[in-house]
Write a structure and sequence with these properties.
The chain is of the alpha+beta class. It is 35% helix and 17% strand. The structure holds ligand ANZ and zinc ion.
Length: 762
């Protein structure tokens, strides 16, 4: 028999698989359960890198395994093909974004073939295909009808160089544009948003039952950031030389924002039980209170200087990076604590964010660390009102007041006590535990209409507008008479027009504003002159529903046929990177819930199973990058060792969810292993088709290995499955004769990992 030569084997089988179409899956196969094994479809950057191999070749082991276990497996692939790089290439090298992207897709598809993955290319989905984005637009119209798509002026991260709005996640920790490193500034712009906050509770509550990594569930819960607490009204009093008087804004100053036309502001707290310890209040620099000129702040100039400085900082700088809390007292103004009627000073400080809660807080330095630091710095009183149930020494709560003075001293000298405990110095509430006090106090607030229990979320509505060319046009027109008018369904898709010049039109306008013929249309409602919306959609919109399309990729009348969706969805297993823990996975869940509420799909969670994969680092244990010169080229490795060896090495590197560093000689190990397997076929005794190995121990080991490989694959422990096969093969090598039946078993368990050589040996 000749030597193992992957070159002569692999290409041949890849061609055979393609020509026979064996991986093109039917919607039903008798006696088999359907299973869509989903991986995150790639962005067509132009070249498959080793990370792509890790993301697609290793899950292919699972796809092939599930097929061997009798499932009707769909292993689909597509391209998330809109986005900035195509447009940047267009601007930089004068290439057409569509031509650039399509060329990349063609090249990557060829590279995919060398992986030997069991992909069903007949179901390929590409987000730039008008047959696909027609439905992305259609879903927008459904959202619009339901009030889930709306326009609002929002403060956005603005990159002055890319001239585009950036998502928070596209801004680096240093406050720079992720792509071009320019310093990001804040800017107010009218944007389109999806109202994901309407789904905040369901997005948190429904996550419990999913078979997902705990780390992903936690990341989503933190991202949504639900806090249960209360809002409380604090009356504003102005003090002047005659003393303090009740302040009433003139009626003429009625503002759309409730809070600045009334004589109070609202705070949000999760610790209502500490309210007797409130010694001052803080409002955010962007708080609407400052818009009211009637509010005579004696030191307005100083305050406005502080505000304008604060607006230059990013949220991260304000909250985490800046260790020293700063602020300015609003002279001439006091806030009244509704429980004590005490008047406390009001500060503006940038550690309070306008975008969270109500943008104002009651400060309780005895029980909040930030407030404690601030109080020490500005010499504000610290008033303990909650003590630990048992401190270093016994605390006596007989009448709710007698306490160990050492506990008090500890708080005053060492820092806030932030836990729950028993209340002191809190009138009738003294002696209650924190939980009970919160309940009772909230009741009192509600009875007196001074506040109420409330939940707040960190999650904001999703800004989907991008001022970019290479994206899905938002299907609305702006009419002078009718305002914003949705494009009728029958006119979809609104195709992207061809452009010569892809530079943004300036003033935050998309390059599409330059496409005059395309922009100027008749209003679908009144027939008058109107203009198309020129913003395009965030690419995360495109990828929020692509997995549904795999069930019915060519449907021209619906985004997918109901019967077909029932056959394939929801997705039982989705494999991808931990970087998508929040945005992509959350957006897809939101889309699914919206479609579910519209009665368009019959499942309310898109992915019942989820596993994350790690990252392949360079041989130097660093992230691979051209500048470090530690990039591993999969094509070169395949040429040298064969695809089967590369696949196996990737699976062998470690637990699939962990990062692993590529070892230069690593693939030689799996290559040698496959050579051994190949050479075992010399020992086959064709005539003696005896079912068992002569050596009882070895027969035993073979079956133990089958069991172990099975369980390991099911649990994503591909590395230990390979170790087990290596041990088995070493033992089999010592035999002189190997029955064909035993060898077939070995080839079967090997085939998901090294499909080409397994097919050849079979
Ligand atoms: C009084 C208090 C006393 C608070 C105490 C905490 C401890 P989470 O859990 O993250 O929701 N807060 C409210 N709005 C804020 C804003 N816009 N910017 C900065 N801080 C804000 O945090 C809620 C707590 O964070 C609230 O409860 C408020 O401080 C503060 F012993 O109110 B607390
Ligand atoms: Zn009109």
């Amino acid at each position: 028999m000749e030597k193992y030569d992957p070159k002569s084997i692999e290409h041949k089988w890849q061609q055979r698989w393609r020509e026979s179409g064996i991986y093109e899956v039917k919607d039903a196969a008798e006696g088999k359960e359907n299973h869509m094994l989903l991986t995150e479809f790639p962005y067509p950057s132009g070249n498959l890198h080793i990370g792509h191999w890790y993301a697609f070749a290793v899950p292919d082991i699972l796809a092939r395994f599930l097929r061997l276990r009798g499932k009707n497996v769909m292993y689909p692939m597509g391209f998330d093909a809109f986005g900035l790089p195509a447009e940047n290439a267009a601007i930089k090298h004068g290439l057409n974004p569509r031509a650039w992207t399509e060329k990349n897709i063609a090249h990557m598809t060829e590279q995919f073939a060398t992986m030997g993955a069991s992909i069903d290319w007949s179901r390929q989905v590409s987000t730039i295909d008008p047959d696909y984005y027609k439905w992305t637009q259609w879903i927008f119209l459904k959202m619009f009808e339901k009030g889930l798509a709306y326009r609002k002026e929002v403060t956005v991260n603005w990159c002055p160089s890319c001239k585009t709005v950036l998502a928070n996640e596209q801004v680096t920790n240093e406050g720079r544009c992720e792509r071009c490193e320019t310093e990001v500034v804040q800017k107010n712009l009218e944007q389109w948003l999806y109202k994901i906050t309407d789904y905040a509770d369901r997005l948190i509550d429904d996550i419990e039952n999913l078979d997902w990594p705990e780390s992903t569930k936690l990341a989503q819960k933190n991202w949504i950031g639900r806090s249960e607490g209360a809002t409380i009204k604090f009356e504003i009093k102005i003090s002047n030389s005659d003393g303090i008087s009740n302040f009433q804004f003139p009626i003429s100053k009625q503002s759309p924002n409730d809070q600045i036309s009334k004589n109070y502001f609202e705070v949000f707290t999760t610790r209502l039980d500490t309210i007797f310890g409130c010694t001052y209040c803080v409002v955010a620099p962007e708080h609407p209170i400052f818009e009211n000129r009637e509010l005579r702040i004696e030191n307005r100039e100083e305050v406005e200087k502080y505000i304008s400085d604060a607006k230059k900082k990013t949220n991260l700088e304000r909250t985490e990076l800046q260790k020293d809390k700063t602020g300015v007292e609003l002279k001439g103004i006091k806030a009244v604590n509704p429980f004590t009627n005490e008047e406390v000073p009001v500060f503006v400080a940038d550690y309070v964010l306008a975008t969270y809660g109500t943008g104002a807080v009651m400060a309780v330095p005895a029980h909040d660390e930030r407030d404690w630091e601030f109080a020490k710095k500005y010499k504000l009183p610290i008033k303990p009102v909650v003590l630990p149930r048992s401190g270093s020494k016994e605390v006596v709560f007989d009448d709710g007041e007698s306490v160990n003075p050492e506990e008090i001293k500890k708080i005053l000298d060492n820092g806030a006590f932030t836990g729950d405990g028993r209340l002191i110095n809190s009138d009738d509430y003294s002696g209650m535990n924190s939980q009970k006090a919160r309940e009772e106090m909230a009741k009192w607030l509600e009875e007196n209409k001074l506040g109420k229990k409330e939940k707040k979320y960190r999650l904001h509505d999703w800004v989907i507008s991008r001022q970019r060319y290479w994206g899905v046009p938002i299907p609305v027109v702006h009419c002078e008479k009718c305002g914003v008018v949705p494009v009728p369904e029958k006119d979809l898709p609104i195709e992207l027009p061809d452009l010569k010049d892809f530079l943004p039109a300036g003033d935050g306008k998309s390059p599409l504003a330059k496409a005059e013929v395309w922009v100027n249309v008749k209003c679908p409602q009144c027939g008058g002159d109107a203009k198309r919306e020129t913003d395009t959609m965030d690419t995360f919109v495109d990828s929020s529903w692509y997995f549904i399309r795999y069930a019915d990729p060519k449907n021209e009348n619906k985004f997918a046929d109901e019967a077909k969706m029932k056959k394939w969805l929801p997705v039982p297993m989705y494999i991808g990177g931990a970087e998508h823990n929040t945005m992509h996975l959350l957006y897809s869940r939101f889309f699914t819930k919206v479609l579910f509420d519209l009665g368009l799909v019959n499942f309310s969670e898109p992915f019942t199973g989820r596993r994350n994969h790690g990252i392949i680092l360079g041989p130097d244990n660093q992230k691979m990058s051209k500048s470090r010169g530690n990039v591993v080229d999969p094509d070169a490795e395949v040429k040298k060792y064969g695809a089967d060896s590369v696949r196996m090495y990737l699976a062998f590197m470690g637990p699939y969810d962990q990062n692993a560093s590529w070892q230069m000689q690593g693939v030689t190990g799996t290559r040698r292993f496959l050579e051994k397997v190949y050479n075992l076929s010399e020992k086959l005794k064709a005539k003696s088709e005896k079912p068992l190995l002569k050596n009882n121990n070895l027969e035993n080991l073979l079956h133990k290995t089958i069991k172990k490989v099975t369980e390991d694959i099911e649990n994503f422990r591909f590395n230990t499955a390979i170790s087990a096969m290596m041990i088995l093969v070493n033992e089999m090598e010592k035999e002189e004769n190997i029955p064909i039946a035993s060898f077939k078993l070995l080839i079967t368990i090997l085939s998901p990992f090294a499909p080409h050589v397994a097919e050849e040996l079979w």
